[in-house]
Amino acid sequence: MVTSLAHRHGVFKIEGDALRFQLHENAKGFKLTLHAAEGWLPHLQYEQEEPFREIYRYTNREQMLGLRNPNGFVKIETFFNVICRPALISAFEKDNSPKLKKWLSNPNITFKQFIDKMAENHEYIDSFKGMQKELVHAKDSIDNKKPIHWMETLDDLMFCLNFHAEMMSAEDHLFLKKEVLPFLMNVIAALPISSAQILLALYHANIINLIPGRVTVTQTQENKGQTQVEIAKSEEDPVYKTYNMFIDCSERITFKWKITLLSHW
Q1: Separation of alpha carbons 92 and 113, rounded Å
Q2: Tens of pLDDT along 228-252?
């Protein structure tokens, strides 16, 4: 949606080794705003050893059934300890990350601690500047065929868990929705390099910005063509904004979780 709107209001040009955006004369004032719950932009496309996901790359149906507790549930922490931990330790070894390998080898490290640790590298004061830095590493990964094994491994592991959601308790579904999936979609999601270059061109042209916080549509005035939204951040009072054009690009997927990408001009 961002690309479509941008091409209708300006042109992209290659200057040196960078992509630049120039507004049409009659489109002055054109702006785009993205909303993201955590204020993150997704990680970029990376080289993968196994580009197609498999449900049982690191386990099998019999082992998954064997993880059930007396109540018939597979606890997500059990899944992490038995299936995820050894696979991720092996991935860190392939990625030449001995510190992370040693850290995760500690059996007391929980799934939540793992998520928090890996998310640290994705938290930037300015997500676009963070994307600019990651673009260098992403291009190196693809150009030199250097897979990022831990991302690929975690993607496979969550793909497996996805197909066994019926064996999870309500509490684990809540943990998955609140903690795991936002991390997965923002850190493991692979945005194409070309899309990142478009976003950065718009950023450098002062056309696009990103507002963190969960968004809820509170009011729509069809006669005026306006939409009011509530932007909620944890431990802060909600903020209300009104847009002349509001595009909801959210998508519901398994576990009833959403990817929120909202843009306006």
Answers
A1: 16
A2: 888 888 777 888 988 888 888 765 4
